Amino acid sequence: EEGTAESLLHNVNDNLRKVEEAVNVELSCFAPQAVRCSLKDLVPYNLTEGWSEEAKAEFCSVVGSAAVEMRPLGQDRDSLLVDLRKAPMEQSTDVSFSVREYLVFIEVARFYSPVTLGRRPLMYYPPVYPEASKELNAVVCHINNLSDFYIQLVDNMESLLLSAKLQDCYNALTEDKLRVYCPVIGQACVARFEDELWYRAQVIGHPGGRKVEVRYVDFGNKQIVSVSDLRKIKDEFFALPAMVRAHQNT
């Protein structure tokens, strides 16, 4: 223990220096560079236990060492009240997301008051409907009931090529690559189905428990999946319109 203490003291001495008076006067002209901040209106998920280590770890993970967008939202006695947004990094289809909303979504924090600053997510182009009275070959790919079902046109080979390219691309990604942190209702994404394959999807609900409800836009079916089974959609897969056409009897 004595050797450890001496080593620690030696390391401290190696990294501390007295400041000469002339330098000290010069440095006094600079304001402190670090600003104390607090995420506005955010409180621990469990108020009696306070901020958990998981909350801190998730915050550090999502913020990382890269620059983030900061929105000053006010000030209290000793802190700047802010929202931080993770800026898009790679794809033009990326949307920035609020770090506050992410921490609430994964249930390590709660909003003290319902203040959100969300941005409208990018959505798929609508499907192209065939001309009226024209005969076409089609496959019924999903049925909710007799007045609500979905079809794919047999002559459209894009769906087969799209599926193959999706598997090649997303199976080659590492787990954190194109990760979706805070899914937004209406957001275009890629989701893994129960067959372990990847499909284009759209977020339609937040059932809780770090899960989201998605609709697979090329088939019409819906499913609740873990947020870990979502990925950001790359530009090349976003441009194609949804493959299915919804048919409703009136």
TrEMBL record:
UniProt domain Tudor: residue ranges: 182-240
InterPro entries, per database record: SNase_OB-fold_sf (IPR035437), Tudor (IPR002999)
One Pfam family of this chain: TUDOR
Official protein name in the record: Tudor domain-containing protein
Organism for this UniProt entry: Ilyodon furcidens (goldbreast splitfin)
